[in-house]
Specification:
The structure is a homodimer. By secondary structure, chain A is of the alpha+beta class. Chain A contains five helices and five strands, in the order αααββββαβα. Chain A has helices at about 10-20, 25-35, 40-55, 100, 120-125; strands at about 60, 70, 75-80, 85-90, 110-120. A three-stranded mixed β-sheet of chain A has the order 4-3-5. In chain A, a hairpin with a 5-residue loop joins strand 3 (about 75-80) and strand 4. In chain A, helix 1 (about 10-20) crosses helix 2 (about 25-35), helix 1 crosses helix 3 (about 40-55) and helix 2 (about 25-35) crosses helix 3 (about 40-55). The longest helix of chain A is centred in the middle third of the chain and has 13 residues, at about 40-55. Chain A binds a DNA duplex through helix 1 and helix 3.
Chain lengths: ~130, ~130
DNA sequence: TATAATAATAGTAACAATTATCATTATTGA
DNA sequence: TCAATAATGATAATTGTTACTATTATTATA
């Protein structure tokens, strides 16, 4: 099921996701929009986030626990804080040739890659 | 809760995981051992896999859907097949200095990293 | 080698995250 | 304006995982 008709709900979800620079879960987006759209449904948030990540408008990131979403569709890397479980951008330059290089070590074709760093964010260190 | 006393169940789980080179989910390990240990409990499999990954004996890998486990505790990279959802090893040499290099692009301290490639495995391509 | 302390288990219930269902509403092209 | 149908809200169902508890197994020490 690809996106065809527009909806206020989807516009609000994309807008919210692109304005924030954290990487909220579906529920966090739902809670953020709930005030302005009191009868928004959590299922609608999930459905739209999935459609949007399938057609490449946004990114879905699985790191254990609830999935996180990222309004920045350009490939970039992340760090997961083991204390607060928040996900942060790591502006390390994307390794452009890693996919072509890796293909000889892999058993199939490669279409994309992600790098996730694990550690403790400054907020949790202090 | 760290491991102190041994158990046949945990030994079987570690043994199973180290013998196979796929990256089974908790349920796949449970099903594989169920024949030989008919009253093994799925909760026991989960509990042990978590204890073992916490003390670094095995690895837990989250890529969406059920978590996968890897008996090889050395850092190495993986590819997720978007067709069959199986996780494969990618023997691309580990980028030893990426964590020190990335720290200046990150907002905290880094303790480890993973690289996940996405694509389609040979089994699903043919 | 008994025994006492307690870690680990099986079985089950509870929980969290996500998806499916379906009647109603909103969007859009003719 | 209206018909076709995509999208929604509300809720039920499903999936993956953790928590609970009485019982069993392991292990250190007498």
């Amino acid at each position: 099921m690809a996106v065809t008709k527009r909806s206020k709900q989807r516009d609000a979800i994309v807008n919210e996701l692109c304005q924030r620079h954290d990487h909220p879960t579906a529920e966090e987006i739902y809670l953020a929009l709930k005030t302005a759209m009191p009868n928004l449904s959590l299922g609608t948030v999930y459905r739209n986030l999935n459609m949007l990540s399938e057609d490449g408008t946004i990114q879905k990131i699985s790191v254990g626990g609830a999935d996180h979403f990222d309004g920045n569709a350009m490939n970039h890397y992340h760090m997961l804080c083991s204390e607060c479980k928040r996900l942060y951008d790591v502006s390390y330059p994307v390794i452009e040739d890693i996919e072509e290089k890796a293909v000889s070590f892999a058993d199939g074709k490669i279409t994309s890659h992600t790098i996730t760093f694990f550690g403790v964010c400054n907020g949790c260190l202090h």
